[in-house]
Amino acid sequence: MNEHPTVSAAYLDETHLQHLEQLSDEEFWDYARKLANQEPVAAQPEECLECTLSNGSCLIPLLALNEVVLPPHRLALLPATPEWMPGVVAWRGQVIAVIDLSMYLSGHTLDLSNGILLIADSVGLALGLLVPAIGQTASIQYDMQVASKDPTATVEKAEQASPWYLPSRAIFVKGIQKGSLVLDVPSLLADAVQQIETAALNG
Amino acid sequence: MDDEFNQNELSAEDLAILQAFDEMDLEGWEVERSEKGISTRPLTDQEMGIDFLAPEELLAIFVREAGEDIAAIRQTLQQLEPDDHLESARLQVLQRTAHKLKGSTGAMGCTAMSTIAHHIEELVKLITSGTIVPFIGLNALVQTVRALETTLNSLVTSGVESSDPLTELGAEYKALNIEIASGRAEKQALSRAAGEEQETAPRVYVPLRATVEAEPFSKAPQESHTTLHVLRVEVDRFEQLILHTEQLAELSSPLESAQAEVEKALQELQTAQARLRHLEVLVSTQLVAKVSSATIGPNGNGERPTSSLIARILDEARQRTGQHYQRKSKVATRQVKKADSFPWDDLEIDRFTENDVLAHSLGEAIADVATASAQLRAAFAQLSRITQQHIDQATNVRNDTLLLSLAPISALVPRIERAIMMSVLAQQHQVLFEAEGETTEIDQEILEKVMQPLLQLVRTCTAGCQTATKTGTAERGNATDRIRLHVHTVDNEVNIEVGFSMTVAGGALDEVQEAIRRLHGTIVARRNNLGGISFHLRLPRSQGAIQGFLVAVGDRRVVVPLTQVQRIEPGKENRGELPYTLNSLLGFPMEQALPESERAALILQTEGSPLAVQVDAILGETQLVVKPLAPHLHRQGIIGTAIDGRGNILLIVDLPELINRYEIVETTVKVAAIRSRGQQPASIAQKQPSILVADDSVYIRQSLHQTLSYAGYRVSEADDGMKTLERLLDYPPDALLLDIEMPNLNGYDVLSMMRAHPELAKVKTIILTSRTSEKHKARARELGAHAYLTKPCPQDVLLETLRSLLMN
User: Fold this and answer.
1) Among partner residues A94, A193, A203, which is closest to B632 by beta-carbon distance?
2) Which of A152, B280, B541, B543 is such that its CA lies 20 to 30 A from the CA of A60?
3) Shortest distance, CA B80 to any CA of chain A (angstroms)
4) How far apart are CA B163 and CA B221, in angstroms?
């Protein structure tokens, strides 16, 4: 039992399970130690959902999304909210804020009556991102975005493109891939929550 | 006052008094008045109907009041025993009285006395924080009071206060190793005291003296209920049961919605059925006409029907009867005319034309539809009955589950009794505590959450009783003070009255109001039949559910709790005052709103003049489960949300709170607009706005009364918080000058109560206090004060602030 099938940390199919069941305790722990000492595999490409906005498009990491909700949406207005917050919506029994993503990023909006609601989650706080339309999913190499020095890399630095978004929103753009903004959703949600809270104080 | 003033007749003492008043910058104030465009001619006493007090009279008032305050401080000091733990309740009394004295002496311009009074406040803080030991602290307090007395005497005898006692006091402090002015020590003491105030405020531990003369409290009513069998249940499981029960109850709405949809479909089916019947008649008539014309026409012979439907019906008839059908000629046509007169018979099919068959088949199809429709209706009736049973049962389950979480209020009684027993009040007077309706049940969680606020209310009210009752005791002799707890239920609410027969210390309401609000309850203060003050708490009997009116605001729906509404007025009703509109209060767009004449109005529960809030329509009454909002979604005037059967979110609104917010925003916007345009203030002399001055200091009230009357305002006064509130409700003024430290209800209490009375939302409130910290300013702003001024306040600042606020 010196040779073990290559096992990805993320996937265990039936063969692998059968193989593990046949191992003695000692063999199992040897195998576990070997796995633990392995060099980490190259970073997995991050799957993102492409969203069409009023002036451009953006990519939202699928890991940040809980659900994609199709129209119609039953939005309810809440007093004293930022202009990019069209209201609140009920999702899984709780009331969550909805952000018009186009308005939030660029200050412009489109008709959202047939928009798609993306439920995003950050540290247990869910918010809805309302976008006019969604497209395909795309893979981006997250590591390249951070480390690449190659100007021809697929992921460009955000500053290199002519921004259609508000300058104050640049900090929520991790990069640009094929013209689409790759959004830093947790930071964006944190900022949105803070602004929604502040809007209540300002009346 | 009618005698003409002659300055030459003034004595040296009078001149000294006048000098003190000169420091109040009356001249500058007059210049200010003329500059601001206000009538420069002072109104005469007759014009204003006011008897102005002479300076010496004002001084006499001040001296008498200051003397009383000093005597009260001395009396409290004598009751303090120099043991290891000075009683915190008595120290609070000292601090409050000193604070009041600081305010009145400061306003009078007696800086030495004001400073000495401030020293008493600081000494109490140092003692409370443990910076100085009680024995030394008590000694320092005695010296300080002596300095106060000496300074007041100097003012009385020479007309000018002497600063020598203050200087000597500094030396005494040094000898006692106390550094009042030392920044570090003071800051440390302050911060420590502030921190401890936060932490220990709800707990006032006062050891019960062995020498208490008070009658023992009336015994708490013994548990009247018989022994109950108790089943232990894990809290998690119980909460899960409640959750599932609520979900079951929430299903009622979608079920009713689905039922309504089915009923709607059934109605459509009936309509279609009626149309078919009508069609049947038309078809029969037209076929008869067609057959007639065909018989008369040239091609009268039998032909295959043109319609495939007819062909199919004929084929079916043939299959049923086994006869080949042929069109009849003239004979048959003649029979058609008779067809209506005799019934259909399958065995005599050949007597009928194809049109008869067609009409008959159509009739049969319609009859089939009618039968199906009737069956469906019967099934629907059965479904409705079962649905109703399900909803009733779900309600029963929910109510039963909620019953599990109820507990009697009597659990509170011993703790309230104990709080009273430990109070300063109980050590000085006979106190009778009575409880009524304590077997009333309320949700355990609410009971638990309301426990501390209620105890805090009792402790605060009974803590400062010495000052509060110093005159009252004399009037009442040895009468027993009474405190009562009356509980009763109204619908799904529990009303708790905590009543006192004596004047109580202010501040209680402000401390507990937020906690009560979080429980979706309200608290108001009213004068009671004991001659004192009662606090009335209204709390929901159980958590989660709320009963309210479902109202339309444009194309949106919101819920107004029933407790906020006194009555409903339909549209077209002639309403005197222009009502608020819910759209405006919520800040929602108005595009969908109906004309004013067609909108219904909710008349709010108020103690003053009625207030109306217009809505587009009142859709009915509803009971919903409240979903609390996440902290970032909290909005003033929104209690929470509910989700209806279709997944719509309904806002549950707090109308009084919305009106208050609306008025504050409107005032701020208007004042800012006026200031930005640089408008000169309009003359107020013509309009004579009314001002209510609320301050427990006689001197400050008199002083402000004169100043404001002279500036052309109509002035009324109140010397405690309860009277202030009563005056506000009886005669709402244009503006309120409000002190913070007052008996019965303090300034914050009054502000809190004003928020609960939307009819007072238009009253402009200026806090006038000697409290200077940002914490107090922020609190006042938070409670809706329009301006915050500190004593002693220059007259021009006060008048300018008033003018700015009253201009809109």
Assistant:
1) A193
2) A152
3) 46
4) 58
pLDDT band, very low/low/confident/very high, at A143 (cuts 50, 70, 90)? very low
Residue B471: alpha-carbon gap to chain centroid: 33
Report the C-alpha gap between B672 and B519 in whole angstroms.
36
Q: What are the distances in angstroms from CA B733 to CA B162, B576, B727, B751?
A: 40, 19, 9, 14
Residues of A in contact with B635 (CB under 8 A): 78-80, 200
Query: Is B591 within 8 Å of chain A by CB?
Result: no
Domain boundaries, chain A: 11-41, 46-202
DSSP classification of residue B768: E
Report, as an integer, the average pLDDT of B84-105. Answer: 78
B586 to A79: CB separation less than 8 angstroms, yes or no: yes
Q: Residues of A with CB below 8 A from B646's CB?
A: 74
Coil/strand/helix, residue B188:
helix
DSSP string, B527-573: E-TTSSEEEEEEEESSSSEEEEEEEEETTEEEEEEGGGEEEEE-TT-
**Tokens coding B210:** 């062995």
B468 at interface of A, judged by CB pairs closer than 8 A: no
Chain B interface, mutation test: which of A77, A89, A117, most B Cβ atoms within 10 Å? A77
- A144 pLDDT band, cuts 50/70/90, is very low
Cross-chain residue pair B649–A200, CB shorter than 8 Å? no
Which residues of B are less than 8 Å from A125 in CB distance? Answer: 630
Q: Which CATH architecture has domain A46-202?
A: Beta Barrel (2.40)
pLDDT at B63 over 80: yes
How much is the ipTM here? 0.76
pTM, two decimals, is 0.54
Compute the nearest-CA separation of A88 from chain B (Å): 8
Closest CA to B436 of B499, B348, B392, B371: B499
The answer to whether A193 faces chain B, any CB pair under 8 Å, is yes
Summarize pLDDT for B309-349 with one digit per residue, the tens: 666 666 676 666 665 555 444 444 444 444 455 566 777 77
Q: Which domains does chain B have, with CATH numbers?
A: 55-200 (1.20.120.160), 255-384 (no CATH), 407-540 (3.30.565.10), 545-656 (2.30.30.40), 680-806 (3.40.50.2300)
Chain B residues closer than 8 Å to A93 by CB: 627, 643
